[in-house]
From TrEMBL:
<dbReference type="InterPro" id="IPR029044">
    <property type="entry name" value="Nucleotide-diphossugar_trans"/>
</dbReference>
<dbReference type="InterPro" id="IPR005835">
    <property type="entry name" value="NTP_transferase_dom"/>
</dbReference>
<dbReference type="Pfam" id="PF00483">
    <property type="entry name" value="NTP_transferase"/>
</dbReference>
<protein>
    <submittedName>
        <fullName>Nucleoside-diphosphate-sugar pyrophosphorylase</fullName>
    </submittedName>
</protein>
<feature type="domain" description="Nucleotidyl transferase">
    <location>
        <begin position="3"/>
        <end position="227"/>
    </location>
</feature>
<dbReference type="InterPro" id="IPR050486">
    <property type="entry name" value="Mannose-1P_guanyltransferase"/>
</dbReference>
């Protein structure tokens, strides 16, 4: 099994932590970087190879990970000379990728079974499988419904339930057909194109532990919880 880890972003929302370090290498707990945790998890799940798409401060990632042998993985790299979006880096890699593979962000902290996501993707026949997570969004305002300049309904500080993308995907190589290598391609653009052609992605619903380390408060929470979650996140690794 093969995985592609997207690690080329600048981590702007996580500054100042990412001023000198790429976001996937910010430390979690006393001993581990996020990317190390991910690589250990992939190896424990049975993945044997991995491509890391690097850009901003990418040479630091390359120096840290090396060839991946310390985690039992065969790691190679793809370099972004300019930002290509979430899915754009895959277009330049297409000839090196197997028919189905896992794609994930390099800053995800979760106990998701990555191998099962890929197995379910292969079995679904879908062009894309999206790992999803239930999130409740609290609105801090009274919400009005208006019609013809009249208020017809009112809800005080409602909560709304959504399923959100976890930043982990199963992908078939053929799904990338028709897109131009070297041009940006976002996850949103790919999904909207699939929906437009009635080629719906498959949803992999997950209700375990998940944090997207995108903002300082998420990062602080991850560090606060890691000691008690370590055996869950690194089981078998």
């Amino acid at each position: 099994m093969h995985a592609v880890i997207l690690a080329g972003g600048k981590g702007v929302r996580l500054r100042p932590y990412t001023t000198a370090l790429p976001k996937p290498l910010v430390p979690i707990g006393d001993q581990h970087a996020i990317l190390e945790i991910v690589l250990r998890q992939l190896s424990a799940a049975g993945f044997t190879s991995c491509t890391i798409a690097i850009g901003h401060l990418g040479e630091i990632i390359r120096a840290y990970v090396g060839d991946g042998s310390q985690w039992g993985l065969n790691v190679d790299y793809a370099t972004e000379d300019s930002p290509l979006g979430t899915m754009g880096p895959l277009l330049n890699l297409r000839h090196r990728l197997p028919e189905t593979f896992l794609v994930m962000n390099g800053d995800v902290l979760t106990d998701l079974d990555y191998a099962d996501v890929l197995r379910r993707h292969r079995g679904s026949g879908a062009p894309l499988t999206i790992a999803t997570y239930a999130r409740k969004v609290h609105i801090d305002f009274g919400v009005l419904t208006t019609r013809s300049s009249k208020v017809v309904a009112f809800t005080e500080k409602p909560s709304m339930d959504y399923r959100v993308s976890m930043g982990v995907y199963g992908l078939s190589r053929g799904t990338l057909d028709g897109y131009t290598p070297g041009l940006p391609l976002g996850f949103d653009e790919l999904v909207l194109d699939l929906l437009k052609t009635q080629n719906q992605p498959h949803a992999y619903e997950f209700d375990g532990y998940w944090l997207d380390i995108g903002r300082p408060d998420d990062y602080d929470r991850a560090n606060a919880e890691f000691t008690t979650r370590k055996s869950l996140l690194l089981k078998g690794a």
